[in-house]
TrEMBL record:
InterPro entries, per database record: WecG_TagA_CpsF
Keyword Glycosyltransferase applies: yes
GO molecular function list: hexosyltransferase activity
Pfam families: Glyco_tran_WecG (PF03808)
Organism whose genome encodes this protein: Photobacterium profundum (strain SS9)
Protein name stated in the entry: Hypothetical teichoic acid biosynthesis protein A
Recorded superkingdom: Bacteria
Keyword set, alphabetical order: Glycosyltransferase, Transferase
Length: 242
């Protein structure tokens, strides 16, 4: 039986404009920013602790964006942490403001390629700490201490949902400075494969989902199995109960 997964608290935190991103980057407050798509929505909507900890969600995917815009007056733009969307805005801002960046996620060999790629694209970017994303909860404190010791202003988490949201929530509560925490999903892996992962025509026509569908088996499984279920269970949340 399909049940509604719509979560009003989550929906109220979903933003979708460059103006909101710029406001977040320029804010003096500690912020935790994450992204939600049809797959992660099904996970995050059932975890109120994550919803409460994240300050802003961006709509990562054209399907969720269109569904949201159909049911809500306030319209969203699709915003993802990759080079088809806002990754360059964020990384350029960090470089230009000479702030410190910590990066956590992916496999170590992928992360090393990613760091090398970043150094070429952003030669003045100050990456003060990086490590792979394979660690347990028992290591949370030691990682937080290291990030704190190195005075990171921004933290990029590419751990997949819900681990990146859970760890990001821990960091937000643990760190005393006004750090900015961004999740980035598969950005580290994708960039380690190809600097600008999506082909120009794919970006032009918002077909990122199709490229990933063709390249990755797990994406095909999600689109075929999970996305139809998401559409139905999301829409059910807007149907008045009799």
């Amino acid at each position: 039986m399909v049940r509604s997964i719509r979560n009003h608290d989550l929906d109220s935190k979903v933003k979708g404009s460059i103006e909101s991103l710029n406001h977040a980057l320029e804010s003096d407050e500690k912020l935790f920013i994450s992204f939600v798509n049809p797959f992660s929505y099904q996970i995050i909507s059932s975890d109120q602790n994550i919803i409460n900890s994240v300050d802003v969600f961006y709509s990562d995917g054209i399907l969720l964006t269109k569904l949201h815009n159909f049911f809500y007056k306030k319209k969203l733009e699709r915003m993802s942490f990759d080079y088809s969307s806002i990754a360059d805005n964020v990384l350029t801002y960090i470089q230009d403001k000479e702030m410190n960046l910590a990066i956590i996620g992916s496999k170590y060999e992928e992360l090393e390629v990613f760091i090398t790629t970043l150094e070429k694209r952003y030669p003045k970017l100050r990456v003060v700490y990086y490590r792979d994303g394979y660690f347990s909860e028992s290591e949370y404190e030691s990682i937080a201490s290291k990030v704190e010791e190195l005075d990171a202003d921004y933290i990029l988490l590419g751990l997949g949902s819900p681990k990146q949201e859970i760890f990001g929530s821990f960091l937000k509560n643990r760190l005393l400075t006004n750090v900015k925490i961004f999740t980035c999903g598969g950005f580290i892996y994708q960039t380690s494969v190809k600097d600008d992962y999506y082909y120009p025509l794919v970006k032009k026509f918002n077909l990122m989902w199709l490229q990933r569908f063709l390249l990755h088996d797990y994406v095909r499984k999600r689109l075929i199995k999970d996305y139809p279920k998401f559409i139905l269970s999301y829409i059910l949340g807007f149907i008045p109960r009799g």
